[in-house]
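Exercise 3.2. Students should predict the tertiary structure of the chain below and write it as structure tokens, then compare their answer with the key that follows.

Predict this chain's 3D structure.
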Amino acid sequence: MPTVIHKTRSELELQRRQLLDDVRMSYQELAERASTYSLSPRELDVWRTIEGLDYLLDGDSR
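Answer key:
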């Protein structure tokens, strides 16, 4: 049986901010480095997680 994690919008936004703080970059900096394939493995994990969080956050606003 798959695991389902329930989080509020504010929890997702907080997680997103914490991830950016962890890599000490703004979203714009991280996105730019991702577009030029200049991320470390840890930064790439953060980028992919943020992409997923953004997907969930965008879907929540509809």
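Discussion points: The first helix runs from residue 9 to 23. The chain is about 70% helix and 0% strand.
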